[in-house]
Structure formats: C-alpha cells, structure tokens
Amino acid sequence: MRYNILLGGEAGQGPNVLTNVLGEALVKLGYFVYYSRDYQSLIRGGHNFNVLTFSEENVNSNDSKMDIIVSIDKTTEDIHKNELKEGGILLNGDHQNMYFAGQLFKVLGLPLEILEEELKILEKRFEENIEEAKNGYDEAKVCFKIIKSKKNNGILVDGNQGISEGAIKSGLDMYYAYPMTPATSVLTQLAQKQKYNDYFTMELENEISVINATIGSSMTGEIAMCGTSGGGFDLMTESLSLAGIAEVPITIFLSQRPGPGTGVATYTAQGDLNMARHAGHGEFNRVLFAPGDPTQALELTNQAISFSQKFGIPAIIISDKHLGESLYTIDSWPEVKKVEKKRSLKRYNSYEKDNHGSATEDPKVIEENVLERREVSLRIEKESFNFSKYEIFGDKKSKNVVVSWGSTKGAIIDAIKDLNVKFIQIKYLEPFPYELASEFGDNLILVENSATGQLANLIAEKTGIIIEEERKILKFDGRPFLCDELKEELEKKLK
C-alpha cells in the first residue's frame, strides 16, 4: 500500500498547514509519511504544492501519479489534473483549506475526531477551522478505508531540523547567518530554541560578516557555526582560507539550490560539490560531509563539529533544499556525544606564522608549516575510519551498483526495492572513502541532481574509476527525483 496525495494552492491559501495536519495525523495512526514542498519565491499568489506519500512500510520519496489531488485553487487543477491516476479523486471548488481537510479525512475514511485533535494542536482559529472542516467532512464520501497501522510510532521531521538538533546536541555556542533559502530555517529553528539551551543566534548584514563573526567567536574558544546557500558561500571563501591557515575550528552549513547566480531560489540541486571541495585559495585542510536524511543530518553535524574542534579546521555540511525542507518519518532523534571544545588562547592572523604566532617569510618555517598541515590531513583520514563514511543498501552482492550522495538517497532506496541493485550512499566526501572502490561492480551507475555529475569526477580522482556518460542518471530542472520515474530509468540502465 502506497498512496500519493498532491495538495496545491496559492501562497497564503494554506497548502502547507493542510499537508502538515494530514501528515501528523497519519504518523500518529502508525503510518510512514514523507512529503516534499514545491513553491515559488513569492509571499502571496503563484502556484505552491506539496506531495505527501504514505505507506505501512518505510517511505522516502514521492511518485509521479496521484491517488488524490486537493486543488485549493483552479491553477492546481489545471496544472496537475493529468497526474491523477485512473480512478483517482479530485477535490476542488471555492473553499478554504480546512474545508478540504475535512473532505480529505472523509475520503480516506478517517474519523473527524482525529482531525479535530490536530486542529486543537494548531492553537489558531479553532472554532472557525473545525466548522469549515465539518462542512467538508459532511459533503464528502469515503473512497479509501485507512485503518490504524501498528508498524510505526515515529515523528515527522525535516532535514534542516536534523542540522539544528545536531548543532544543539554537540554543544553549540554561537550560530550566525544571513537569511538565504533554503538554509534559513536552521537559523529560525535555532533562534526559537535558544532560550531553552545555552547558545546564541545572530542574524548579520551579509555572509562576509557571518563567517568573520563565526571565526571571531571560535578564536575565543566557542563552538561556532554558520549557515548559507551557494551565493552566500561564495562570499565566505576568502575567510574560509583564513580559517584554514589560522587553524580556527568553524563549521559551515551549505544548503544547495540551483545556480549559477540567483538561479532558481526555492528549488533544489546538487551543483555545489566542486565549490565546497575547492573554495578558498591555497592548500589547507577541510572536511566535507553529506547527509541523506534527517537522522544523518544530525549525526554528521555532530561529526563535523567534532572534526573541526579536534583538528582546528573548517568543516562543511553540504545539504540541499529537497532534504532540508522535505519531511520524513523517523523513530526518534539519535543520541550523540557533546563535542569537547578546543580552547587555545594565542595570536591569530592570516599569515604563515612562527612559534610565537608572528607573521613570517622564513622559507624553512613556511615549509614546516605546510608539512604540518599535510600531517594533519593524514590524522584526519585516520580519524575518519572511526565512523561510517558510506552506507550500502539493497542487494549487497549485486554487480549492479548505484552510487550517489545527499538527498537522492530516499528516491534511490524506494526505487531499488524490487531490483537486483546495490546502492552505495557516500556520506564522507572529504576525506573520501577510497576503500569503497572494492564495492563497485561491473555496472556502476551514478544518480545525481546536477547536469555534470560532479560525484563521478570525485570518484575518478580518488579511485581512478571512470563512470561513462551513458551510465549517469542526471536531473537538473530544479526538481527532485521521483521514485517511479527513477526506477524506470534504472531498469533501462540495467538492460
């Protein structure tokens, strides 16, 4: 059993509230829920929609065909009516979102009392909302009979919450950011929780100020972190080099969206891998981690902060809009250890320095410093073997191997359930787990949300293994992979 529901309307008409009310109710009934958001860069108007997929089994992606479409406005019906399955249900008309909530719960055969409980949790306009919901419930009919499932007792969270929770559990002291979609919600989530935890958030005037403030806080012995998207990260690169040579431990959250330039501000992509690996001038150490779900987002944020503090280096967590803003069902947040701070009161500058922290141009000292940074890189690599740098899913003995990173994890896991495929998800991009080359089979396929397949270049650089163009499944229209469409593409490659 796997149902797909599309809920759409203009910005301001409440498709997000409607989706969340349904999602939370289904999770409490024991179902696994996953939903993604598609919205334009508008406060009012335009066309926004969410796709919610739920099942009695774990679900991590959406499909292209809908069992139910909820059309709060006429545009949603016009754009998406061809996505409705044969026999599917279209709910439309000139009504408020809570009227459709009532209709939707009735169509799914869910008691009105469950919807009433969720509306009470909203704590906004309850009397008005429940009246609208009752009207919709009374005027609809049962089309599906969804009964309580015993297979899940989880919570509904998004990827950016994983970043926030990971930072808090690691012992965060300071978080700086300038608002930039899709990284902004980490700033707002942390700001809302700072009064309950011992840390501080600050919004500054631009990303140059953000990274410099992060470096300054770290120099005083604080665990400092900042967040941004691609265009903001561009502005941070000079100071990234400063952190590299001055051995300042900072953690950067980089949430990708399509570029170059402003690109498509509210959509998703995986085009910043090369930038994250190479940004900054000169040669210095960094670590780069890529979570594929909210749980990994928490764990890898903790590991990034730990590496940064232990080795005095910049650590980067690279995510994207799709992972950051999509909601997944998880059992609970994992427990991680609070990170030990690296406190070192000394002189900091952006020059090569001698033992006293003074700038130097002595060739012998310069050479010693460079060799010391190379020695640190070896210690970083050795430390990385204490962690899970990649994960394997599917048929672990298969010679058909899919390799990917980041938010594509969910769609790939769902797509390969009935296929003879092994899926390798790479979580550590730097240091790269070169040892996984032995896991690559005869038929190696790359899946990536980019036009150039940047992970293939990284694999070739680190292992010498070339993934030919015809073995790449790339999507670069700003939208995520869908389970059924990806499965079809994989089946073609397997032939």
Short description:
With 495 residues, the protein is an alpha/beta fold. The chain has 3 domains: 2-153, 3-Layer(aba) Sandwich (Pyruvate-ferredoxin Oxidoreductase, domain 3), CATH 3.40.920; 157-384, Rossmann fold; 390-494, Rossmann fold (3-Layer(aba) Sandwich). The chain contains 16 helices and 19 strands.
Question: Would you mind describing this structure in some detail?
Answer:
This protein is of the alpha/beta class. It folds into 3 domains: 2-153, Pyruvate-ferredoxin Oxidoreductase, domain 3; 157-384, Thiamin diphosphate (ThDP)-binding fold, Pyr/PP domains (Rossmann fold), CATH 3.40.50.970; 390-494, Rossmann fold (3-Layer(aba) Sandwich), CATH 3.40.50. Helix content is 38%, strand content 22%. The protein has a 7-stranded mixed β-sheet with strand order 8-7-9-10-12-11-17, sandwiched between helices. A 5-stranded mixed β-sheet has the order 2-3-1-4-5, with helices on both faces. Strand 4, helix 2 and strand 5 (84-91) form a beta-alpha-beta unit. The mean pLDDT is 96.
Give a count of the beta strands, DSSP E runs of length 2 or more: 19
The poorly predicted ranges are: none
Widest beta sheet: strand line-up = 8-7-9-10-12-11-17
What's the tally of helices?
Answer: 16
Query: What is the CATH class name of the largest domain?
Result: Alpha Beta
The CATH superfamily of the largest domain is known as Thiamin diphosphate (ThDP)-binding fold, Pyr/PP domains
Class of secondary structure makeup: alpha/beta
